[in-house]
Amino acid sequence: MKKLIILFGLICSSLIFAQTAKDIIQQNLDKSGGLTNWKLLNSIILQGKVSLGINDIYPIKIYQQRPNLTKTVITIGKKDTAIEGFDGEKGYAMNYATNKLQVYENYKPESFDNDFIDYENKGFTAELQGQEKIGENLCYKVELTKNVNKTIYYFDVKTFMLLKEVKKDETLSYSDYRKVGSLLMPYRIESSSPKKDGDYVMLINKIEINKEFPANTFKLK
């Protein structure tokens, strides 16, 4: 009986690792809408509330457009205030010491797509590092590496949805997935960092995709 249990364990283990990192990433893309539909996504508006602390809760809007245009706006006292953005040439963010937007020369905009979309063409390698529980959910743990940059992604073993993303300076958790057009997107995003200086929870109540933005949407004003 003991030998049968060991044999069964070895069989289960081999089945787990029969899945490759590439397979898992492909399953995520397929089940969340398909690679073609993700590539047809050209712009997005996220609207909701962001919690920066117990009593610091603000309405928020995030505008994004290919290839890397972005602007984040929060509402304080019924006034919309841009706190970060990239207009294609300049990256800017709120300087809270002066309470003004400041241009940052070394600002590095993030790509519109997640790194694991077409990751091989972007120069990343993917490695399956086994399984790990995130809360009550068992997940595949996949590491993407490019040069010295590493990011770990946790995909639910049942749904293949992305539940957690761990970068060097930030951990992002995703939940409450809902249908937006042909795509599945998270309506709850939580960010935490080792220094705990930029942690937030964002609860999204509306997502609009492929809207045309006015030409000056992302410009520093």
UniProtKB/TrEMBL annotation:
It comes from the Bacteria. Residues 1-18 form the signal peptide. Keywords: Signal. The keyword Signal applies. This is Histidine kinase.
